[in-house]
Specification:
Blueprint lengths: L4 H24 L10 H24 L9 H21 L11 H20 L1 H5 L12
């Protein structure tokens, strides 16, 4: 599948709103990690927003590949890069609602679970639940 920019955005929003929210819920409720009272959902929102911006760059870079698609290893590298970038962003820029010094170990666990869940859903559930998703450039609507 060669995702279009609109397809990337739709897929990202749906995955963050479903899979991301599902994996974030235990962190927000304080079941896993320190009592965060909604901060993990704010982190999830900022990650989704930042991801929409990254998708513009990813879509541009994808045009230089001969098949215009990312192999899975590039997706893994992109996920690692986004986590590092976001952690520096939180540390050096004052994002509303987030204070510098978010415990790095809990961010890493939360981010890893959300990202791996979304990665797995992209390669399994999306293809089952939306059979034409692959043929429509990732567009759902």
């Amino acid at each position: 599948m060669t995702p279009t920019l609109l397809g990337r955005w739709q897929t990202r929003i749906v995955l963050f709103a479903t899979v991301g929210a599902l994996f974030t819920l235990p962190f927000a409720l304080g079941i896993v990690g320190p009592d965060a009272s909604g901060i993990p959902f704010l982190v999830l929102f900022y990650l989704a927003l930042l991801g929409l911006i990254w998708d513009v760059l990813y879509n541009y870079l994808q045009q230089f590949r001969w098949d215009r698609d990312w192999p899975a290893v590039f997706q893994l590298i992109a996920g690692l890069w986004e986590a590092i970038f976001f952690s520096y962003l939180v540390e050096f820029i004052d994002l509303p609602g987030l204070e510098p010094g978010v415990p790095l170990q809990w961010f890493a666990i939360h981010y890893s679970l959300v990202w791996l869940g979304m990665f797995a859903a992209t390669h399994t559930l999306m293809r089952i639940l939306f059979p034409y998703w692959r043929f429509n450039g990732g567009q759902l609507f």
